[in-house]
């Protein structure tokens, strides 16, 4: 299993991955992102920024890269980098299918992505991913599964995914929304030929949204690798607008709020890989300082008190504008 390479890695940053959602397309919902990217949001400008980030991440010990079909040209940019760096075979690559990017490289599109968990969508997007990433794909996840998703019950789709697993690609899912825990537990019950289908789960978990914690612990105990996204709550836990408890912990540590937010997740015993969504190399370095943050009991207690009701958290997230 490719994640064994991460577990065997000796660098502290090996359990922090780099997600390319913020640089694979010109618009995203992270707060402050409009100031993070170059004035030109052209394909070539973002390709250059992505390659710069990937070089920095690799040099700093990051070995997991997260992309998706809906992250604009993220798979394409990553494929360019992999071809130019053939010796970097220790990089673990994960992508996702289930959303189609529809913004046509615009920031003012009415819809930036459209969800479809059908077999037809899988067949189309799997072919697209294979054309770009070929045999470098280690993990393929269903994107943003919710309890009502047909991906949890579609036997034909499960057979397709099991065939992919037989060919050496790990099969997983990401979850989203206020019922993440229910989706995770439903996924644990999906079997093909008597074997559990999903070997990884990627979920949102941060100081403001902790509702999936118990289910993620169950998934970890069942043998799944847990990946965490949005550990900084799309920017709500970073920068000067971060809650007072985060700013106090950051001041105590002498590091950034972003590092504190990531450190809180890294200390969870079930967290296998925690994703950075950095859009600049400076942000990436700051994020990686999370491995140096030692949160004391008082700060952990204050951070724990920040948790919101899941419905409120996801309502706020849904209202974030695309920058």
From TrEMBL:
Coiled coil: none annotated. InterPro entries: AKR2_Oxidoreductase, NAD(P)_OxRdtase_dom_sf, NADP_OxRdtase_dom. Pfam families: Aldo_ket_red. Residues 47-307 form the NADP-dependent oxidoreductase domain. This is NADP-dependent oxidoreductase domain-containing protein. It comes from Streptomyces aurantiacus JA 4570.
